[in-house]
Write a structure and sequence with these properties.
By secondary structure, the protein is mainly alpha-helical. The protein has one domain: Orthogonal Bundle (ABC transporter involved in vitamin B12 uptake, BtuC), CATH 1.10.3470. It is built from 11 helices and 2 strands, in the order H-H-H-H-E-E-H-H-H-H-H-H-H.
């Protein structure tokens, strides 16, 4: 039966499941506005999830784990910058190689540090609810601090950074026409490195959210393709933050609804696999519709060398 409690819980889960997508989409948007496609996002989220959990488990503090995940994301962005900006390597190959390498390193670290007969766990970040007294409506606000930060801090700050700051102006100039930006005195290399490292930090926080808040544990394949979803959401959002956030909420809503319908009477005859596939099918449909004539940055995928 669908009632106020069901709707409140569904809305709460939607924001919660959208959180890692908002971080990843914001990070990838910053990166791509500089003209660099970072296909290392899946691996960066993965290494953020592992590093954050491993450090939190080692020191007993999830906040320190979150800081470690940010550092891991910064380093991942710097590696991608070295490959694509300094060496001028193919961005597709570099990104896929980075993803494979980071996932492999994370799984190796998991086997060396955390393997055993029992799943290692930590005390995760708590949820809190400033409007707990509002009944079913108040369920929507039962969230983690990182969820509030994603929607109230990171998304607005990223929008402001890209559209309202000198760095954002340089970022957009480099992404559209690096030759003109260079002639105007803007360092293309420094701007792209900064974009990749900022983006990497945000992606890693998105991954760490799953281990440090939602699960309190690290499991293999914990990212489950969310990085690839973020890539689609950037195109869906047409390289704008708020459309990307809307796409993240749509995906999370369909995902959360599918999980809940599986246990509701009358829906038990629908294959579980179909329910799990629904949000990804929604992303594909949205990408097919919005990807037509998408306003890609002018220097998208193009390495730059000073003549």
């Amino acid at each position: 039966m669908i009632d106020g409690s069901f709707l409140g819980d569904l809305a709460s889960a939607t924001f919660r499941n959208a959180t890692p997508l908002v971080y990843g989409t914001a990070g990838e948007t910053v990166t791509e506005r500089s003209g660099v496609l970072n296909l290392g996002i899946e691996g960066t989220m993965y290494v953020g999830a592992f590093t954050g959990f491993a450090v939190a488990w080692w020191v007993g503090d999830p906040l320190i784990g979150l800081l470690a995940a940010i550092v891991a994301g910064l380093l991942a962005g710097a590696v991608m910058g070295f490959l694509t900006v300094t060496l001028g390597a193919n961005q597709h190959v570099s990104g896929l190689g980075l993803t494979i390498g980071l996932i492999g390193l994370s799984e190796l670290g998991n086997r060396l540090l955390l393997s055993g007969s029992e799943l290692q766990k930590i005390q995760p970040f708590p949820q809190w609810n400033p409007l707990a007294g509002l009944g079913d409506i108040g369920l929507v606000f039962q969230q983690y601090g990182l969820t509030y930060a994603a929607f109230l801090l990171v998304a607005p700050a990223t929008w402001w950074l890209i559209g309202r700051t000198p760095f954002g102006l340089s970022l957009r100039a480099v992404g559209e026409n690096p030759e003109a930006a260079d002639a105007a005195g803007i360092s293309v290399a420094r701007t792209r490195y900064a974009a990749l490292m900022i983006g990497g930090a945000l992606m890693a926080v998105g991954g760490a959210f799953l281990t440090l808040a939602v699960l309190g544990a690290f499991t293999l394949d914990i990212i489950a393709g969310r990085g690839w979803v973020c890539l689609a959401l950037v195109i869906f959002g047409r390289w704008g933050i708020w459309r990307g956030v809307l796409g993240a909420l749509i995906f999370a809503f369909v995902y959360s609804l599918g999980l809940r319908l599986q246990i509701m009477p009358g829906f038990d005859g629908i294959p579980r696999e179909l329910m799990l596939a629904l949000p990804y099918l929604a992303v594909i449909a949205a990408l097919a519709l919005s990807g037509r004539n998408a306003p890609y940055p002018g220097a998208y995928l193009k390495p730059y060398r000073r003549s």
